[in-house]
Amino acid sequence: MRSSLKLTKILSKASTQQRYYSAELKSILAAQIPQKQAELKEIKEKFGNVSLGDTTVRMAYEGMRGIKGLVTETSLLDPEEGIRFRGYSIPECQEKLTKAQGGQEPLPEAMLWLLLTGEVPTPQQTEGLRADLQQRAQQVDPKTVEFVKSIPNNLHPMTQFSMAILALQKDSKFAQAYQDGVHKREYWIHTYEDVLNCIARLPLVASIIYRKTYHNGQYIKSDSSLDWAADYASMMGFGGNKQIAELFRLYLSIHTDHEGGNVSAHATHLVGSALSDPYLSLSAGMNGLAGPLHGLANQEVLKWLKEVQKDLNGREPTKEVLRQLIWDTLNGGRVVPGYGHAVLRKTDPRYTCQREFAQKYMKDDPLFKLVSTLYEVVPDVLTEHGKTKNPWPNVDAHSGCLLQHYGLVEEDYYTVMFGVSRGIGVLSSLLWDRALGLPIERPKSVTTEWIKKHVKMN
Ligand code: CMX
């Protein structure tokens, strides 16, 4: 009797603390928002007519490369150095962000706090957010869960994922508040609820998709004592393995954000700019992530690696043999998946940190050895080929071989994991879009006729 009273006391103290820390995130944002709004107003008033650079005919035809026409606060990509999350490089995030007990990789909850506020959270703040996300995940409508379970398995997992996010949309606080006539200064408060509810529930729906598609619908319950990434791994069937939990923490932290112009971030921002709620916006972003030149490249890399292994047909993967196989891909009018980037001009640091993880835990894995040898060969071949502006590997060149090693062998699923992580970055950005009152996006398009006349006149 006495010990159960003691436990109730401890639990109630813990839950008060959790409430306190998750309320703290909201109050930090509430304090930051008016300052940022004032700053934005001043910048627009003082410097609104300062040019950010020219737009050329080439830029208009070639995917708007290099046009500075978007503001995204959460991260910035340098072509040489790679991504910085709120100013922090990947090694700095690995050092500074809260880790699980005994772990070395950052917790995605800490990354979420960083992306939302620009501040590195304390371990207590990270724990408060973890507990808050757990509670929000538990409050999901069972009917939504049943719907996700009923999505046909013959749809690609990314199609299922996008549908699942749309199914979660029925609980959108923002959509409801808008219908109730909410004042625009309060948009962010309802967006905040949607952003946290949606992020909390992504591992749940994503793991259901995994279990129904590949494991006969034998579902595994969430374990509320685990962190967001470890619980996702556990619900997928990889519970109790410390290395996989660490891999999930790293994977789900580094895939969150890559500034604002990539397809998934831009699509989420664009759709959100029409005041479509966060679920509708994220689902649109996921449809973009599902393209083979973007997030689906992680699936394509694995398929290609398997093709290479098949073509090797027992031969030693020497550099000479691999060179020929890469040329076969290029001569077949295909891209080498996992290589090249629209902005980066060096090896992606997201590739490097995954390589370091492999060197630490699985250096003798045959697939990792193949990926490593390809790293020595592909850049030379692509340079010789002479087309790509960046012959170096991106994030997708490495992720699949790590997952294969730990038994997550269904490569068609890989982009869903990317999407679960990407939700953290693009929804953090969307919160700020609504907080800063950014308007509906509507760039000007022109016709080729217009360009011909314009060029003649100039
Ligand atoms: N293999 C073969 N050719 C490539 C190539 C690659 N890995 N990367 C670029 N090229 C080609 C392009 O197809 C283009 O050819 P065309 O002129 O015939 O159209 C030419 O090189 C110039 O392209 P670029 O300016 O260097 O690259 P883009 O900015 O247009 O495209 C990207 C960037 C990522 C789509 C491209 O490098 C690519 O297709 N890579 C392979 C797919 C991939 O790994 N995507 C994942 C990117 C990361 C992510 O978003 O997740």
Gap between N and C termini: 88 Å
| CATH level 4 superfamily of the domain at 123-292 and 411-435 | Citrate Synthase, domain 1
Helix share bin: 55-70%
What sequence of helices (H) and strands (E) makes up the elements?
Answer: HHEEHHHHHHHHHHHHHHHHHH
What's the rounded overall pLDDT mean? 95
The CATH topology of the domain at 123-292 and 411-435 corresponds to: Citrate Synthase, domain 1
Compute the CA-based radius of gyration.
23 Å
Biggest sheet character? 2 strands, antiparallel
Active site: 294, 341, 396
Organism: Naegleria gruberi (Amoeba)
Family: Belongs to the citrate synthase family.
Protein name: Citrate synthase
Describe the structure.
One of its GO terms (molecular function) is acyltransferase activity, acyl groups converted into alkyl on transfer. InterPro entries: Citrate_synth-like_lrg_a-sub, Citrate_synth-like_sm_a-sub, Citrate_synthase, Citrate_synthase_AS, Citrate_synthase_euk, Citrate_synthase_sf. Strand 1 and strand 2 form a beta hairpin. 43% of the residues are buried. With 458 residues, the chain is an all-alpha fold. It is globular. It has 20 helices and 2 strands. It has helices at 2-47, 57-61, 90-96, 108-117, 123-138, 142-150, 157-168, 173-179, 187-214, 228-238, 242-254, 263-272, 278-289, 297-312, 319-331, 349-361, 366-385, 396-405, 414-435, 448-457; strands at 75-78, 82-85. A two-stranded antiparallel ribbon has the order 1-2. Helix 4 (108-117) packs parallel to helix 19, helix 9 (187-214) runs antiparallel to helix 19 and helix 13 crosses helix 19 (414-435). Residues 1-11 have low confidence and may be disordered. Among the domains are: 123-292 and 411-435, Citrate Synthase, domain 1 (Orthogonal Bundle), CATH 1.10.580; 297-405, Orthogonal Bundle (Cytochrome p450-Terp, domain 2). It binds carboxymethyldethia coenzyme *A (CMX). Carboxymethyldethia coenzyme *A binds at residues 262, 293-295, 297, 330, 335-342, 387-390, 394-396. The site of carboxymethyldethia coenzyme *A has 21 residues, from loops.
